[in-house]
TrEMBL record:
Similarity field: Belongs to the class-I pyridoxal-phosphate-dependent aminotransferase family.
Keyword annotations of the record: Ethylene biosynthesis, Fruit ripening, Lyase, Pyridoxal phosphate, S-adenosyl-L-methionine
Protein's UniProt name: 1-aminocyclopropane-1-carboxylate synthase
Source organism (scientific name): Gossypium barbadense (Sea Island cotton)
Catalysed reactions listed for this entry: S-adenosyl-L-methionine = 1-aminocyclopropane-1-carboxylate + S-methyl-5'-thioadenosine + H(+)
Enzyme Commission number, as recorded: 4.4.1.14
Top EC group: lyase
Length: 371
């Protein structure tokens, strides 16, 4: 964890609790920090699995922090306060904020001023902050990744109450490409949370065999360093190919620097500015174009027309084919739209001539009557 964060922060092994993946880590923190009916605030768009991981067995409610494309979906003070007040109006006790940094599905890292804003907010409200940092090792271009722990230490908050109210979730699934190993971790400076999470980890242990294998792997510093460097280059190359292919199809996306996906803007392809139109477009892409992408509504995006497109788990040839299919699809929409507009113009022109002839005929008839 320290190496991925550039050794700017150190982590005490006694404050780490191993879990069976990040899913288990997030659920365990919900059990530790909240009661049934309490709420956590999450910025939109967010990972769809949180609806399952945070809520199903804990009874915790999610209240969205509505972020928009006007500022690249960054968290703002008014949005935070509005989400908090919304929870209050629903008689929900807010126990904390949960963010993913880097973001899934945006593929972006949080800026330091956003992290400062979050720390100030939870300090003022006396609530918790969970920073899900499972994509921290996937940052392939600037700006670099800044951990919430780094911000806490830079602000010398070690001896303040907020120090024990910030918790980190980490996993090897994304950084080392080991999702099937189910190795996650909770890091907390609160000894009570560590003790409770340790007891609960008995329901989701990492096997001894897995721990032994990973211990040997991670002890090879040369391998891990070379692996991470090569992984960053491959991610950046693949992401560039996706962005280039999308541009050729006339599609833009949010500028990203991390993660395994891009947040793609297809608003101009919607038949109307509605989530119904978004689902209609998504079905056409899935069933007709044969591309598996995620609609923004599944990530609780407040604006229709955004889609998450993964690029890391396919070959270059497959990605090239996917972009060719998508371009052909967009071109077909453009041709249909042009034909539709030409038909409308033709009908309008015909109606104009028909009305003119009718009006002329009526005038001629009246003239004959007057005679």
């Amino acid at each position: 964890m320290a190496e991925i964060r550039g050794n700017k922060v150190t982590f005490d092994p006694n404050h780490i609790v191993l879990t069976a993946g990040a899913t288990s880590a997030n659920e365990t923190l919900m059990f530790c920090l909240a009661e049934q009916g309490d709420a956590f605030l999450l910025p939109t768009p967010y990972y769809p699995g949180f609806d399952r991981d945070l809520k199903w067995r804990t009874g915790v409610e999610i209240v969205p922090i509505q972020c928009t494309s006007s500022n690249r979906f960054q968290i703002t003070a008014p949005a935070l306060e509005e989400a908090y007040q919304q929870a209050q109006r629903k008689n929900l006790r807010v126990k904390g904020v949960l963010v993913t940094n880097p973001s899934n599905p945006l593929g972006t890292t949080m800026r330091r001023d956003e992290l400062d804003l979050l720390i100030n907010f939870i300090t003022d409200k006396e609530i918790h902050l969970i920073s899900d940092e499972i994509y921290s090792g996937t940052v392939f271009s600037s700006p670099g990744f800044v951990s919430i722990m780094e911000v806490l230490k830079d602000r010398s908050l070690e001896q303040t109450p907020v120090w024990e109210r910030v918790h980190i979730v980490y996993s090897l699934s994304k950084d080392l490409g080991l999702p099937g190993f189910r190795v996650g971790a909770i890091y907390s400076n609160d000894p009570i949370v560590v003790a409770a999470a340790t007891k609960m980890s008995s329901f989701g242990l990492v096997s001894s065999q897995t721990q032994y294998l990973l211990s040997a792997m991670l002890s090879d510093k040369k391998f891990t360093k070379e692996y991470m460097a090569k992984n960053h280059k491959r991610l950046q190359k693949q992401q560039s190919k996706l962005v280039s292919g999308l541009e050729k199809a006339g599609i833009g996306c949010l500028e990203s620097n991390a993660g395994l996906f891009c947040w793609v803007d297809m608003r101009h392809l919607l038949s109307s500015n509605t989530f119904e139109a978004e689902m209609e477009l998504w079905k056409r892409i899935v069933y007709d174009v044969k591309l598996n992408i995620s609609p923004g509504s599944s990530c609780h995006c407040s604006e229709p027309g955004w889609f998450r497109v993964c690029f890391s788990n396919i070959s270059e040839d497959t990605l090239k084919l996917a972009m060719q299919r998508l371009k052909s699809f967009v071109d077909s929409i453009a041709i249909n739209d042009q034909s539709h507009q030409e038909l409308k113009n033709s009908r309008k022109k015909f109606r104009t001539k028909w009305v003119f002839r009718l009006s002329f005929q009526s005038f001629h008839d009246r003239e004959q009557d007057e005679r």
